[in-house]
Amino acid sequence: MASHRQQIDEDIDFRLNPPRKITFAPPAAGPHSSFTLYMASSLMCLVSLSSFFLGVSYVYCPSDMIPLIEPIRQDDHYKYLLPLLVPVTAWFGIANWVGWEYFRYS
């Protein structure tokens, strides 16, 4: 008797709330999404360029001007770690997000 009542409740619920239509289209863009995209892209470009110029300054900066960076300048490997870590991490995050979106909407 309980299972019959449960079936009736499910039928009523199905008629009142039919399942949503499955679509493969991405969700609609919000009103500020293009502005947000441009700002995020500009920020990413700025961070990448500043990291690049910081890495270049480690190589070409005279050591007598800034004595604080002399040990970093003399290092052969790790002086590129911090300037390159920022854009690589950001681009990895973007690639991960794009891959997740492809997986989600496939």
* Number of E-state strands: 0
Largest sheet: none
Radius of gyration: 27 Å
Q: Globular, elongated, flat, extended or rod-shaped: what is the shape?
A: elongated
- Segments where pLDDT lies below 50 for 5+ residues? none
Number of helices: 4
Mean pLDDT: 77
Helix content: 55-70%
The helix-and-strand class reads mainly alpha
Distance between the termini: 43 Å
Element order: H for helix, E for strand: HHHH
Strand content: under 5%
Provide key terms for this protein.
68% helix, transmembrane helix, transmembrane, 106 residues, 4 helices, PIG-Y, membrane, mainly alpha
Description:
The protein has helices at residues 2-16, 33-60, 70-74, 81-104. The mean pLDDT is 77. The protein has four helices and no strands. The relative contact order is 0.08. Helix 2 packs antiparallel against helix 4 (81-104). The radius of gyration is 27 Å and the shape is elongated. 68% of the residues lie in helices and 0% in strands. It is mainly α and 106 residues long. The protein has a domain at 45-106.
Q: Concise description?
A:
With 106 residues, the protein is mainly α.
How are the secondary structure elements laid out?
Blueprint (H helix, E strand, L loop, with lengths): L1 H15 L16 H28 L9 H5 L6 H24 L2
